[in-house]
Design a protein that fits this description.
By secondary structure, the protein is mostly helical. It has two domains: 78 residues, Orthogonal Bundle (Rna Polymerase Sigma Factor, Chain: A), CATH 1.10.1740; 74 residues, Winged helix-like DNA-binding domain superfamily/Winged helix DNA-binding domain (Arc Repressor Mutant, subunit A), CATH 1.10.10.10. The chain has eight helices and no strands. Helix 6 packs across helix 8.
Length: 165
């Protein structure tokens, strides 16, 4: 497939790809990333696209599959994080839901008192369950900076909780 045919056939589908991705992911940045991923995959396989009878259906299906993959990866990350949370040492919180709810509220208060960038990183890490690489991409920091910030923030929260209890 020539570059001109590719441009005429696949580039006009940009808005439809975005709408499908936005509908499935419900996240503007993730939808934009998916649009780019679709075009990267299409361009990488441009030599075999000549046999596609219905490019629009093909692209929509490809978008759907990429979105499902992203959702599954995110779900696995969340499950891994919850498994890791079970391995954290018990710092004196009983199995009382009121105490746990109060503790969670206190942890979120601790995060809200942090400097802006540190707060942003921790909210992405805790509430969106993003990994270091994704947080680094969103914040423009290096992955190492994100790891160090998360580690320091955890220690700060742990220290404040121990003082509280």
């Amino acid at each position: 497939m020539t570059t001109e045919i590719f441009k005429r056939t696949y580039l006009p589908l940009n808005a439809q790809i975005y709408r499908v991705a936005m509908h499935l992911l419900n996240d503007e940045e993730a939808a934009k990333d998916t649009v780019q991923d679709v075009y990267v995959k299409l361009w990488a396989s441009k030599d075999s696209l000549d046999i596609i009878d219905d490019p629009k259906s093909f692209v929509i299906k490809m978008t759907h599959n990429l979105c499902v993959d992203k959702i599954r990866r995110n779900k696995l990350r969340i499950e891994e994080k919850s498994d890791n949370m079970e391995m954290l040492p018990n710092i004196g919180i009983e199995d009382n839901p009121v105490v746990s709810r109060d503790t969670l509220r206190y942890v979120l208060d601790c995060i809200n008192r942090m400097p802006k960038k540190q707060k942003e990183i921790m909210l992405l890490f805790v509430t969106e369950a993003l990994d270091y690489k994704e947080i680094a991409k969103r914040t423009g920091l290096t992955e190492l900076n994100v790891r160090v910030t998360v580690s320091r923030s955890r220690n700060q929260i742990k220290k404040e909780l121990e003082e509280l209890l």
